[in-house]
Specification:
About 35% of the residues lie in helices and about 15% in strands. It has nine helices and seven strands; from the N terminus they run αβαβαααβαββαβαβα. It has a seven-stranded parallel beta sheet with strand order 1-2-3-4-5-6-7. Helix 6 links the parallel strand 3 and strand 4 (about 145-150). The longest helix is centred in the middle third of the chain and has 16 residues, at about 120-135. The radius of gyration is 19 Å and the shape is globular. The mean pLDDT is about 95.
Length: about 290
């Protein structure tokens, strides 16, 4: 998939998302395995790509098991050895790693989110700090090559969830242009990239001075009946607009996946092909040839 993306775009990205679920017992080279993805990370390193690991404290087959997968379970120390082993494997890998832990915790969509199970603002911050300390605290494994991305949804309150700049390397956001039929049959409004970013950016700029990574970004294909909706323009105009408006945004990670099977749009760049063409033009512009510091 990585090679196919590079071939279609003409340039390797700076970041590639990789999933790892704490309760997924598959082997290390299986997508979503609980183990640190050493094989994939090493492969990405050969391409000059930094892995951004979406690290989810959940068993994918037990998404409602509050007894074992709430913040309380993490804060009890139940997973400390697993976290330590994973952190040690990340340190042993040696390359730069971004860990996107407990993403979108400001909403109750996931079992680690606020107001799910017994989760509170305080318990989420405590879980974050506990994990960070195992990686990089005084009694941790010294995984200084691992950088932590505190990433929120574009909706919901975030100030009381922020653990503090000392425990965060990047802040981040999810921002999508859904543009899909609603239950009533009408279409969600087509939103520019700037409009999609604005709610989360407003929140992030108020809680932290850290650089920002837009960790999940995408646009649905346009409604054929909308004459002004263009995925080409959404991408081609959106990237420069975000760069100019918010210089603290250091990376935009496009969600190049078809998620119609999960009730979401087809986010792929090539849906329609004009979207991929716009992305290729952005990738060819040296203004967007960033690296991860």
């Amino acid at each position: 998939m990585v090679d196919a993306h590079i071939a279609s775009v003409g340039r390797a990205p700076a970041i590639w998302s990789v999933w790892s679920d704490w309760g997924n017992t598959g082997p290390e080279n299986v997508v979503g395995s609980r183990e640190f993805p050493t094989t994939m990370a090493n492969y990405l390193k050969t391409k000059g790509i930094v892995p951004m690991i979406v690290w989810e404290p959940v068993n994918p087959s037990a998404q409602t098991d509050c007894q074992n997968w709430s913040n309380a379970a993490v804060n009890s120390g139940k997973y400390d050895q697993y976290i330590r082993d994973w952190a040690q494997a990340a340190k042993n890998y040696g390359g730069r790693v971004i860990v996107r832990f407990m993403h979108e915790m400001n909403l109750p969509y996931f079992i680690w989110g606020v107001n799910r199970c017994t989760n509170s603002y305080a318990s989420i911050k405590a879980a974050w700090k506990r994990v960070w300390n195992i990686f990089r605290g005084p009694d941790g494994v010294g995984a200084t090559n691992v950088k932590f991305l505190w990433s929120v949804s574009g909706k919901g309150y975030v100030s009381n969830l922020y653990p503090g700049d000392a425990y965060v390397d990047y802040t981040g956001l999810t921002a999508f242009n859904w543009a899909r039929p609603t239950a009533a049959g009408s279409w969600d409004a087509w939103r520019s990239m700037i409009a999609a970013f604005t709610p989360a950016m407003t929140a992030l700029l108020n809680v932290s001075t850290k650089p920002i990574i837009a960790a999940e970004v995408g646009s649905a294909p346009p409604d054929p009946s909308c004459s002004t909706c263009s995925k080409y323009n959404w991408i081609k105009n959106g990237y420069p607009a975000v760069r100019n408006k918010w210089p603290r945004v250091k990376a935009i990670v496009y969600m190049d996946i078809d998620l119609r099977h999960a009730g979401q749009p087809d986010w792929r760049l090539a849906s329609p092909p004009a979207g991929l063409q716009a992305y290729k033009e952005i990738a060819a512009n040296s203004l967007f040839w960033g690296t991860i510091p």
